[in-house]
Fold these 2 entries.
Entry 1:
Amino acid sequence: MVLAELITIVIVALIIIYTYSKYILFNYWRKKNVFYVEPVVPTGNIGSLLTSKVSVGEFFYDLYVKYKDHRAFGIYTFFKPNLVITDPDLIRAVLTKEFKNFHDRGFFCNEKVDPLTGHLIALSGKKWRNLRVKLTPTFTSGKIKQMFAILKLCGEELVSSLESVAQTGDRIEIKDWFGRYSTDIIMSTAFGVKSNCIEEGDNKFRYWGKTMFEEHPFWSVLSAFMPQVLVFFSIPFLDRGVTKFFTQIFQNNVKYRQTHNIVKYDFMNLLIQLMEKGYVEPDDVDIDESSPTNINKLTLLEAAAQAFVFFAAGFETASTTATFCLYELAQQQDLQDKICKEIDEILKKHGELTYNAVNEMTYLHKVINESLRKYPPVPILNRICTEEVTLPTTNIHVPKGMAITIPILGLQRDPSIYPDPDKFDPERFNEDKVAARHPYTFLPFGEGPRICIGSRFGYVQTKVGLVSLLSRFKFKLDPRTTVPIIIDKKSFVLAAKDGIYLTIEPRK
Ligand code: HEM
């Protein structure tokens, strides 16, 4: 009897929840008269994301393909409405023209529970603006030029570690090698430590770097689309071990440099300047110490959070980009020969690998851009509406708090923008072809005031890795690697599911 009553109560409760969700909570877009994708109780439209049936990039790619003609359309992430924007003019409005109405991403950020989440990607409003202004001088070409020697050294170490493998013509998993190379670069420049990952593939730096990127689909989706839930319950997003490891390394090395008056030309030095003075010394101009910028010094934890985000934002993205370049070049030997010819000529002209030499390699730049087009490491962009506005040329009224998603993978593989989109063709980035396209159809680094702050560094890091390898080795596709790749469903960054295996042999 009791059991029967209980079952009845549960059934009635479920019917009430279902009806309330379907007809009240999921009524938002219908009421607003905006085209939307029919949701399902209780996950809205993101059921396949939560169960890792598709990756985030593929999920929004599929939506783009089906509904792009609506220019903007509604979906639900759980019960929360989310506006997906596919039209390049509307994208420009959100990212740039109406930036004041969309200046935040709405990502998880809780400095009390998770101090390392107080970084540039996640911060919002004035805090973000102040920090962005402070960090911008960190990424000038002058500053990157000063760090070039570190990148070059890592490139050389990568080559010497692969020399013996190349002699036997063996296969390598190239993403792992670029991951080790990127970890050594960012550990050295932002944390002031030689992590030796190129030599020791499985050390603690690699371990914690990988742990940071271990995907837990449910928590990742929750933190990206409904971070309020984590903040409300004071649930930390970052693994405790990751926070401890990166904070301690940063803290120890800052102390060491300060105690021994060590000055190196790297990110860590610039972050120390932000802690001690509140600003980064410009490359050539003397700064007035009493100027208003000399306030708001960064605390140690705030600075550590920035070093951490340089790692988090720069390590996977740059190594993925270099990996996909080699994956495509291994399939098209004529393109590989062409890029090698450019590399050889420019290295010969400069006598060695220099910052200027790398920047003269225009074909290399096109190859990297084509890789970023076909495989954008960050496949979507996010914004939150920070002040209500009607999207120009539409009757879509966007209220404060509305989440916006921009499906980059969809745009960059749209055949009406990039004909034959699966073809890897660097000539798409010839000047005339770029000029003929809408500028908001190539967005691997985002756009507007919140564009990637590290894009210049990301390019140089990728180029040094590729030039170092391609000047010495030839790459071919190993049969173990599929064409096309199978995308890893669990990874937010666009990545190949089972890695990318190439055979490597000496060039000369
Ligand atoms: C190929 C390499 C890279 C790619 C494809 C990439 C991509 C992106 C994208 C798509 C965004 C979001 C932009 C937006 O919302 O409009 C972003 C933001 C950011 N990236 Fe990168 N990134 C790369 C390398 C780097 C590197 C090397 C660093 C640092 C050393 C870095 C640091 C950041 C930071 C701090 C932000 C947040 C900027 C802000 O909100 O003000 N990125 N990146």
Entry 2:
Amino acid sequence: MLATVALRRTTGWSGEAGLGPASVAPCGTVSGDQRLCMAAILESWDLTVPDVPPRARFYPLEPIGIGTPLVEGLTSYLLRLAEAHGVPVGALTDELRRCAATALPSPGLKICTCPYRLLAYSVNGVEESAVKWVYVLGAATLRDDLKHLTLLAFKDFLCSLSLFRRFRTWCPACYEGWRASGRSVYEPLLWSLRVASVCPLHRRSLISVCPHCERPMRPIMSSSRPGYCGRCGGWLGAMPDGPLPEELSPASSNYWVSNAAGELLALAPRARAEPGALRRAFRENVEACVVHLFRGNGAEFAKFIGCTATSAYNWRNGAVTPRIDQLLRLSDRLRIPTAAFLTAQSSAEAVDWKAVRPAVEGYALPILLHRPSEEICQALRLALGERPAPSLSEVATRLGYRGTEGLRRVSRSLCKRITDNHRKSFGPEPYYNGPRPRICGRRKIEAALKAALAQNEPESVPHIARRLGYTSSGPFFKPFPALCRAIYLKIARRKAARIRVMRRMVEKALRQNPPPTLRALAVQLGFKDKAVIGRYFAGSRAQLLALRKALAKKQAVKLRNELQRYTRAKPAPSMAEVCCRLGLKRVTASRKFPIEYDLIVARHQRRRRALAVLRRQKSGLHLSRSSRSQKQRASGFLGAGSLPTHCFN
Ligand SMILES: [Zn+2]
Ligand SMILES: [Zn+2]
């Protein structure tokens, strides 16, 4: 409307009647002098549309500490952003999720659908969820530096295994210091790493239990705020009761590892972005480290840094990269900064491994075993003449080698002759030396068979053969067919009698109330495996199974009645208590009685929530009424979708 009026005025006075909206202006009555006078007073208006920068959905808060060891984590940024808007973090993440649903370019890139209270530290990590949250937060705040609040710079290098803690962890001294000096309170990314157990500033252990409610908490909960407990709202900068934890010495391993983790995070913005660059740099540096500090001895290297020889071998040939704890332990054992292993050899800041010496005590350059080949050949020739002939590994041990590979490298032919000699002197006698001696005489075999037949429970013929040193019972059947057959018949009769006894026991079991299980019955019959019942008494087995099934049905009805009684019990018991009282497994309860299970769990949760509210009211640490009403108002804004859309760029 404004533009139309302006257009009418400028073009109207210039006299171009009939062109555009100016043609409707009544200008025919104005005299020539008046027109000149008005042109001198009114200047023409600029009609070009001004260049308006894009508006951010949320305040584009400045991330804290990018490029330093105490760089902020993405979870902390979310908390600070929610606080800046005066809304609970849950409302903020819900809004972000709505933005993501409408604005994302590809349907594959959907933000994680788990509820905000289940957001874990993995949002700060190297996985797909971190990429999505960085993208969505970046779009909502118009910031492109949020990826530095995660470990995405090391995406190709670090695996997500054992990277983050499950619970929120902090340094109370840091919180207190920031609040006292009026600086922003935030959570460094370092605190969320599982490997970092010490604050690099205060050299004290990090803590993860609230000093007020004495419970651990998830990284982000519905009422989480930077520096405050997500459960009771208490200030986390308060020191826990009891004596202060001691300051660790700068030489301690925990302190070094935490510090090295901080250095790694500080490296993130400078890390090379092209895929595989970090892996290549690590492989080159480890190889150079082994060559120059361990004289190329991979086994010594592995032993010194406390990893397996296979891991060290795989790092050196680039097949795998280390986990974050292995990388930091490598740095700790050698006391060489982590950056030394991740800076490419081709770059200007590359480490000169020839000049580096580990700063750790107890490091000694491995001694290189070197002996002239001629000396070793001489020793091998001497071993050839020895009687009894020694094995090659004996010779190697005598000469100070761990394996035989070194000797084979010196002279393969001599080693082969030593091995052949040894084999000949201890190998079995060849057949052409004459027929092998008889194991047992004919009389001895006959006596053994007769003795077996005289027994109440005769030993079987193959058993007797094995006992006397034969591999099969062939030599027994040919000379003594009648004896062998008599033993076989006696064994068969005994077996039939045993089966008759067993049948009586099985029939008795069928009449028992409650009927025993198949396994219990098998044990009664003297077997470990219940399959034996099916093999001999298939019909009885089917009957027993049917009886057990009917019994199980009856018990299920009884259990359901019991569970229904607990769904009305007051105070509402927990599922664990109910299972304990009924002797029921939790998983069985949830699978067989899902309705009762859900009801009991829901009632117990309601009771716990009510108790928590009571506890919070009692402790008097709940949010003040004014700030709550402010929050309610703010969440009302969010719900209506009318958040402030100012841009402070
Ligand atoms: Zn601290
Ligand atoms: Zn608490």
